[in-house]
Amino acid sequence: MKQTPALPRFIFASRWLQLPLYLGLIAAQAVYVFHFWVELVHLIEAAFGSQAALDALVTSIGYKNGMTVTHLSESITMLVVLGLIDVVMISNLLIMVIVGGYETFVSRMYLENHPDQPEWLSHVNASILKVKLGMAIIGISSIHLLKTFINAANYDEKVLMWQTIIHITFLLSALAIALTDKISHAQAPSH
């Protein structure tokens, strides 16, 4: 077997420089888990009448109706739950980037026989990862847009307009990525 020259081996080994980035994303994931539990505890406490927890929730969601909020309303509950869903979706995005990116760009994980291996990981590549990330970003953007529309009275008309335009841009970008991927696969020669 022919020995690979030193420079290509060094360049190929440089992929391991991404490892601290993935470890940093795992730390960010831990922060999201902590944030989720803090908000959930505040929601439960507010449901049982804690004014301090309710005030923390109202502040965190940016809810303003011109009056002092004295009870957990359906709108506030919905905004908090959408915020929790948003955290979960961002966490899912982080997992896709960490696991998929590591598998695609750094090193194989050898999870083929693991019972919890995600179905998508068995055929992940850079194109599939881009499409999955695009779809996740659209989902996150949808939740943000819904939160904004539910709490629309607290936003300027320009904010509503720009969030909608940005969401449509995400949709069009994801469609373009998926279409480009489909066209490139259709034109690729079969082996």
UniProtKB/TrEMBL annotation:
Entry membrane topology:
Multi-pass membrane protein
| Location of the protein in the cell | Cell membrane
**GO CC annotation, single:** plasma membrane
Q: Which residues cross the membrane?
A: 21-38, 76-99, 133-153, 159-179
So which domain of life are we looking at?
Bacteria
Q: Which Pfam families match?
A: UPF0114
What keywords is this UniProt entry annotated with? Cell membrane, Membrane, Transmembrane, Transmembrane helix
- What InterPro entries does this protein map onto? UPF0114, UPF0114_bac
Give the matching NCBIfam families.
Answer: HI0507 (TIGR00645)
Q: Which family does it belong to?
A: Belongs to the UPF0114 family.
According to UniProt, the name of this protein is: UPF0114 protein B9Z44_08920
**What organism is this sequence from?**
Limnohabitans curvus
